[in-house]
Each structure stands twice: as C-alpha cells, then as structure tokens.
Amino acid sequence: MEKAKISASQLFILMVLFELGSALLVPLAMGAKQDAWLAILLGMGCSFVLLLVYYRLYSYYPDLLPTEYVQNILGKVMGTVLAFVYLLYFMYDAARVLRDFGEMLLTFAYPDTPLFIANALLMLVIIYTVRKGIEVIARSGELFFIFMYVLAVTGFILIVSSGLIDVTKLQPVLEEGMLPVLKVVFTQTMYFPFAEAIVFTMILPYLNNPEKAKVTMLCATGLSGINLVITMLINISVLGVNLTARSQFPLLSTVQSIQVADFLERLDVFFMLALIICGFFKVSVLFYAAVIGTANLFKIKSPSRLAYPMGLIILFLSVTIASNFQEHLHEGLKIAPVVLNIPLYAIIPPLLLLVAFLKNRKKQRG
Amino acid sequence: MKRKGAFLLLMMMVTVLLSSCWSKKELTDLAFVSAMGVDKTKGGSYHLTLQIINPGNVAGGIQGGGGAQSPPVTIYSASGDNIVEASRRASSRISRRLYYAHANLIVIGERMAREDGVNPLMDALDRDPEFRNTSTMVIANHSTAADLVKALTPVDKIPANKVMKTLEFTQRKWGETVKVSLQDVMNGLQSPGGEAVVSGFRLVGNPQKAQKLDNLQESAPAATLRASGLAVLRKGKLIDWLYGGTARGTVWILDEIQGTDINIDWDGKKEAIAYQTVRQKTSVSAQVKNGQPHISVHARVEGDIGEMEVPVDITNPKVITKIEQALRKEIKKELQKAVEHAQKDKADIFGFGEVVHRTRSNQWKKLEPEWSNLYFPKLNVDITVEAYVRRAGLRNKSFLSGIKENQK
C-alpha cells in the first residue's frame, strides 16, 4: 500500500465516473427493449446488496487491502490464489475497457488508424497517472467530473430544445411482462456497470474517513444509476428502440441528431469527450487496483515501478483479446457475465463474508 | 537546468505528435457531396449521381461580372452492384476524396422506389460513420434521381439546399409536403406494415436545359425543381402518390403540419374566406372494443383570417363562430379524405397500428398479423376538429363591406 489518503467526496467522484464509464456509451440493457430504463434501475437496486457485502468485508479489515484480507480469511495458500485471480480479472477488465475505447474511436473517427496506436496513446497517459498514485487520479477526477456534468447538462438542454424527445417511443411499458426485464437485470445490468465497483474495495483502505464509506458507495452508485437511466431514456425516446438496439454507440447517434436553430449541430465532439474521460478513469481505476494489489501480494516495495510492465501487458492484451469488435462484444455481453462476473461479483464475496463473520464471532467469544 | 531544457524539448516534440496527422483530410483534397441520387440501371445495378460543390463558384457569385462562368456544382456518376462499390468506383472520375459528411439530401429515383424499394440501400447509409441519419430523403416524382440532382437552381445556388429549404418552408406555409430524415423513414419502414411517407420532388421542364447555366440566366427559368406529391411507401416500395388535399390531410394527421391555408365558402361564393393557420396539434388515440379497433383523431387549430372576398361582418362574434364551424367541416373533410385514401391503399402511413400497439399492447398481438389487410382498411376512424379564429389582420370589416354600404 502506498501512503496516500483520499477524501469521501473524491471516492464518490471516482465511483461515479467509473460506473458511467463504458456503460454510458453502449446499448445497455437492450434485451429489455423499451423497458431498458427499468432494467437499469432494478439492476442498480440489486447491486446495492452486493455493495453492502463488499462494505461489510471492508469494515472487518478497514486498514487492509482485499488481497491481504482474503489471506486472513481463507488462509495463506487459498487466499493468495484467490487474490491472484482477482488481480488477473482487474487486468482483463482494464484491457476490455481499453479495447472498447479504441474500437469506438476507430469506428467513428479514425478509420485509418491502427488499433494499437489509439490504445497505446491512451495507455501511456494512464500509466503515467497510475505511477503518480491514487491521489493524483482522484484529483484529476474532481476536475473532469465537473467537466462531464457541464457537457451532460448542455447536451441535455440541446436535445430537449431541438424537440427530439418523443416519449411515446417508450410505450408500451412492460409489453412482455416482467420476465425479460428481470432476465436482463440478473444477467447484465446488476454486474455491468454497478457491481463492477468491486474494484473499489482495493481503494477503500485509502479513505481518510472510513465511516463515510458506506454512504459514499451507495450514493455514487445511485447517482450514476440515475444518470444511466436518463441517458437510456433519452436514447430510446430520440432514436426509438430499433435504432438504439442496432447502434453500436446509441449516445453518438443521439448526439448526432441534435439540430438546434440550423447551426448547433454535429456535436459529435461531446460524445468524444465523454468517451475519453470515462474511458480514462475506468481503465485507470482498474489498472491502479491491479498494480497496487500485485505489489501487495508479492511484497514489492514501490508499486509505481510495476506500472510500466503491467501497463504494457494490458495494452497488448487489449489488442489481442478478440480479433474483431463483434467477437469482443460477444465475449463481454454473453460469456464474461457467466464465467467471470457472476462468480467474482456475486458468489465469492458473500462466501468470504460468511467465513469472515464466523471467524470474527469465534474471536469475540474466545 | 539541463533537465528542464530536456523536458521542454520533449514537450515541444509531443505537441508535434499531438496534432495527429494520421487520418488527416485536407480541405483542398475533399469533394463535398451535397446531394446523392440513387437510380437503378437496366442491368439491375445501382446508379449513383453525386452532386459535388464547386467551392469557388458558390462564394464567387454567378452575377459577378463577365468571364466564363462555371456552375456552383458538378455532377459525377458511377454504377455498382451496391452503394459502397458505386461510391468507391466514382473516385476514378473525381480528383478528390468524396466526403459525405455534408450530404444533406438523398434522392431516390421513382423507378427504383417502385420496383426495388428503398430498403436495400438503407443499410449503407445507416452504417457509414460519415453519412448522417439526419439527411433529408426525397423521391423523384416522374423522373430519375439523376435528372433531379443534375438540375441547377436560381436563388439558392446549391440545388440540394434549394430542395431542403423548399421542403421546410412548404411544410411551414402550405403543408402538402413533409421533410423527413433517413431516421424517420427507417422508423416508419420498421413498423409492422413497413409504411412511411416521403416527399416527392419533380423537375418541371426539359432535363437537358435544367443542367445548363443558361437556364439560370432567364428571369423565368424554363426548367425548375418543385416539391410535388407525397410518396406512400409500403414494405419499402413506392405504391402511390398523394397530392393536394389528400397529401395535406395526411401531413395533418401525422401532426407534421406547421401552417397552411384553408378556404371556406361564404354567402354562396366558393372559397370566399381564407384562413391561415398558426398553431395546430393533432393527437391520435386508440380503443379496442370486442376485438375491433377504433381510432380517434383529434385536431386542434388556431389561426387568423387572411382574406375575405365577400363582405362579412366579423365584428360580430356570432359570425366568427359560424366561420369556425365551417372551418371544422372543411378540415374534417380533408382528414377524412386522407384516411380513406390510405385505407384504399392498405397502407397505415399514419402509424395507427403503432398507437394501438403502444396503448393497447395486449390486444395488439391478436390484431397485428391481420392489421394491414383486414383491420386497417376497415378501421373505424373518428375525426374531431376544433378550429378557432383568433385574429383577423389589421382590419375588421372588409373593404368590400365599405363598398357595399356606400354603393347601396
């Protein structure tokens, strides 16, 4: 662990940016068609339960990184293996988000640029930031958070004032009943992007005010959840269900349809900025967690020395992870939730909590 | 100090890199496509006609003194088995890179729209990151898209702009056309019956003449472009043209009308009072009773009196009420005509099916398979109109009333 402290508000900002991350850009929860907003909202609600599990684990060991306390809970060998699995997962996830980011840039703005170059340029900045430590990430977060919201509010006003919103496109509500919505909730929205915040267990020990951790986590998830709901509502009411589902990046299509007073149009740059800010913070946080965890697990004194080698691994991983964008999305939306997200987010942490609970009770009695 | 110098040098090098010239597109290397026409050749391949802006001649001004003048746009065309192939093949004829980000107009030839429909070419336009979904689409009425795209226009030098502005202002003042974007058309074509309306445009006069600058040097050009008709698409194919009152009624029910003029008879004189609408709102609702769908259309209009060709004493509120009643009848007749016409065509261009789907989604499942063939053509459509006269211009009684009183 490096010697650093972040405040509750910085944690809040990082979490919001993290959860908005790539979820803002992709057609989230489109399995539920026009009820996508409901699926996101319910997913957010369900993820609160998981967040509370993560919080309880943290409150048993407020000064330790998860990589350390799993060893306390499960014993040296099992704990080390499990911690290693989580570290690999954080790196894989960072590579995924980086790939998402690169693919989006290439698809709509730089068709002639190789993916490696686009990813490398972002990764260089991220490596630099992560070397500087969590305090720097958190402070830059504060700056960009304000910027993001200025963009979002301006975009919202422009969309409303160009008269694009047609709420009837959201009807009929619950056409097929609750079942498709619940299916999406439990296979997608609960984990991506909300429970993905499990990576913040690696950052919670840096919090200067541990008693605020719970409120901060829940509020941040709530705010990002509501923002995602609003975004999806707007996407669907502007584009309609079909076009939203068909779009690789619905938000881009929505922003492109803005036409105010014949001259405020083609505001693709809004989308581009949001994309880069969110991509940057999501990769940074995941990458930082991987770096700090590795340093902790393998007892390396200065974590920042790991930034370059691990950054390169993530960079190469992001390029080789899939041979095309469709394959990448398929892995992310169909395979990863079952193989990775459900066990790592929803099964292992509650079991850990159970063991920790039993252990601590024994300790108190003894 | 040395370290600082090295850092400064590095920063300066980075700025060079950051200007990112990888996918650069120099302005002088771009050919701005302002409009694209799509036709079908006899062999069954696509024929693309691209209207490319001649930047110098748009800014320079045709009225500018003397010398050999060239037109504000240049036309290139190419054929191919699909849109992308045709567009790429066109580059063998153009010295610059085709740039579609400013292509605001898509023209589809009537033959192609009738025989093949617009569905096959949508994906190319929808998928391409350069092309905008907000581009306007029109169908060439009684001509090929090529002829329409090639025509030069006065006043607005770029013909694509002339077409779009015509549609926009006609929709605002006359209401028989509607400016639809690719996105709107796609939304319509994806509905269960695949119906949509697209405005038609027609080249009046000789197509050969329309391409010449000489045509523009006349005060009344021999060949001009004109908004004409409303194309009805079903399953992506053009099946009918709507004109006049039917077209206006259709636009009205679609709630796309932004202003028009309604005439009513008075004192035995035909079309004696002109009423200019200012504000209108149409709402459609659906009921299903005993498995039979009912649609109610409610239109509300506010407007002013624009002209009276007979002496009418509008200082009397009762007269205004009578005028309003006559207006209601007149408007209702037009809307009814539009509905009947659509029912004859079996094309639910108003999206009534969507309204039933939205508000009565349970019953919709039963109605859906037979909607276009059985339910829609026999649909019971209840039309109610509210019309209000709010103002009457600068005068109350007509000039004619004065004549009538003084010359008794």
From TrEMBL, chain A:
Chief localisation class: membrane
Name of the protein this chain belongs to: Spore gernimation protein KB
Family: Belongs to the amino acid-polyamine-organocation (APC) superfamily. Spore germination protein (SGP) (TC 2.A.3.9) family.
Cellular component annotations (GO), alphabetically ordered: membrane
GO BP: any one term: spore germination
Record's keyword terms, sorted: Germination, Membrane, Transmembrane, Transmembrane helix, Transport
Lipid bilayer topology: Multi-pass membrane protein
Domain of life: Bacteria
A matching Pfam family: Spore_permease
Location of the protein in the cell: Membrane
High-level lineage: Bacteria, Bacillati, Bacillota, Bacilli, Bacillales
